[in-house]
Amino acid sequence: MSHSTSDLPPLDPARPWITDPEDLPSRINWLATLFNVMGRSSRLHFTRAWTLLFMLQFLFVFGGGLLLFILALTGVDTAGLSVAKQYASAAVFLVTGLMSFVIHNRRLADAGKSSAWAVLILLPLVIAGTVTLGNIQKSAAEYDVMYQKRAAFLEDPGAFREEALERRREAQKARADAREDDDAGGEAASRGPRRGGDRGGRRGFNAENEMPDQETFVLRPHVGAFVTLMMLLSAFLVPWSLMVVARAAPKGRDLQAAAG
Length: 260
Fold this sequence. Notes:
By secondary structure, the protein is an all-alpha fold. The protein has 9 helices and no strands.
């Protein structure tokens, strides 16, 4: 005697909307869901894993920022905590970005779709990482120039100041000569020598002052930018993840038969 699906008892009385045994919360293996790229994940398990990763990112970025704000209001020195939050947030976005690729790959495999689409999830990580590494290399090159100027000053402060004074005189003479020209090229030339000068780079470094810490100058400014870029780029993929990947029907399973 056959029975309709509506005549069958629910798989989980507390969650009567679950019709697929694979969606039962008791069957989720978090270790495999987040780290085993070769497996499969049902729709509900994917949604739960996606929500977990999103909440981790949200808590570290916005929750951590709110906590630092409250601590600052109470008079706590949050400088060190702020730096730790920047690095922790970057690490969380790196790890959760890789985990997100895993859960998308598993969900697409469960739906019988090409796992190659999961590569889209890696695009924000690749783009943000590439931009960040490029900026770090640029800052490292600037730091090397600053270091060389600082070393030259420490070796012979008198000679360094005399050389810097001579360069300023030459720059002033060049600007004076350029002001005599009325064409646009002369005006552009008069602005050129003002940039940089003898202070060593776009950040106004003066070789006679102490150098900033290498981590502070080279690495730290770009850690926060990495997180921001990751958030902006990932936002474009959220509708695809929730509206397409999460809702894709599983392949090769007769849900009514499974429920019976």
